[in-house]
From TrEMBL:
Belongs to the enoyl-CoA hydratase/isomerase family. It comes from Sphaerimonospora cavernae. Keywords: Fatty acid metabolism, Isomerase, Lipid metabolism. InterPro entries: ClpP/crotonase-like_dom_sf, Ech1-like, Enoyl-CoA_hyd/isom_CS, Enoyl-CoA_hydra/iso, Enoyl-CoA_hydra_C. This is Enoyl-CoA hydratase/isomerase family protein. The keyword Glycoprotein does not apply. Pathway: Lipid metabolism; fatty acid beta-oxidation. Pfam families: ECH_1.
Length: 271
């Protein structure tokens, strides 16, 4: 198992063959996140070895993540930072962020979002293994993954509006895609907690299991995903991701294009 250094970012990164595991690793702060966490996530995405097929995101301790570090509202939370303002985004408090000009502030947010967006790449399947609280940025990190396996004690909560913010870590699109606009409005604007049974019913989780079975459930799912041909899995994920944005005819055309490539790849040598 190879381990990458993510020292001081509140993250742990481990690889085991085709599986990469990212662990939110500040259990004493319920895995609260900062700009430093999101820069580190982006770097992991930048440097992810090509052979990795499954990325699992989990939290150390009883909570997946309590969301942004509340210290960002008042002070620098003290984790390692990304590059300083002269080099680009990275300072870890909202007061410092607010001092930026509009373009720099947007770049800072874009850099944070980059930490989440790569989890949708067709070449990988990302799985959030969620137990306990997944609040705000924690909920959005789970939403950034392709699949969510939850423990029966899960508590999803989109708390940003209650704190005067909007959810901006790429969470609004997958949330609306899954639950629809009315339910998303209701959930976000009340900051209420969604538990395991409701998450399953709404499609926010693919599976709910007892907390002590979460690790095994993720392992079983990962093994099933790895048993499928990689090129076919990548092409199929690409097709499925594009489906909501295409007409039936355009989707049928996309299927033909992908299948022609598959058929050639599988049978060209038998001509
Ligand atoms: N930021 C900074 N510190 C935190 C955070 C956070 N988001 N969440 C928990 N902690 C700290 C607590 O202050 C406490 O520290 P201490 O031991 O030094 O006092 C420690 O983590 C443990 O927290 P508890 O509250 O004791 O743990 P408990 O399991 O009882 O509750 C819970 C967990 C529900 C997550 C609670 O800590 C909480 O409500 N946290 C704040 C959640 C929040 O509002 N997040 C922002 C969401 S918005 C966004 O992400 C954009």
């Amino acid at each position: 198992m190879a381990e990458a250094a993510t020292g001081g970012t509140g993250l742990r990164f481990e690889m085991d063959g085709e599986i990469a595991t990212i662990t939110l690793d500040r259990p004493e702060k319920r895995n609260a996140q900062t700009f430093g966490t999101w820069s580190a996530l982006a770097r992991i995405g930048d440097e992810l070895p090509e052979h990795v097929r499954v990325v699992v995101i989990r939290g150390e301790g009883p909570s997946f993540s309590s969301g942004i570090d509340l210290g960002m509202f008042t002070q620098d939370p003290g984790l390692a930072q990304g590059p300083g303002p002269a080099e680009g985004p990275g300072t870890d408090s909202f007061a410092a962020a607010a001092a930026h000009g509009d373009a720099d502030l947007q770049r800072l947010i874009a850099e944070a979002q980059r930490g989440f967006l790569w989890l949708r790449r067709p070449e990988i399947v990302s799985i959030a293994a969620v137990r306990g609280h997944a609040i705000g940025a924690g909920f959005q990190l789970a939403l950034a993954c392709d699949l969510r396996i939850v423990a029966d004690d899960v508590m999803f909560c989109m708390k940003e509006p209650a704190l005067g913010l909007v959810p901006d870590l790429t969470g609004t699109k997958p949330l609306v895609d899954i639950v629809g606009v009315p339910r998303a409005i209701e959930m976000c604007l009340t900051a209420r907690v969604v538990g395991a049974a409701e998450a399953l019913r709404l499609g926010l989780a693919e599976m709910a299991v007892p907390a002590n079975e979460l690790g095994q459930a993720v392992q079983d799912l990962t093994a099933a995903l790895l048993a499928v041909d990689r090129a076919a899995a990548t092409a199929t994920k690409r097709l499925l991701q594009g489906a909501p944005h295409r007409t039936l005819e355009a989707q049928a055309a996309a299927e033909r294009t992908e299948q022609a490539t598959r058929i050639r790849a599988l049978f060209a040598s038998s001509k």
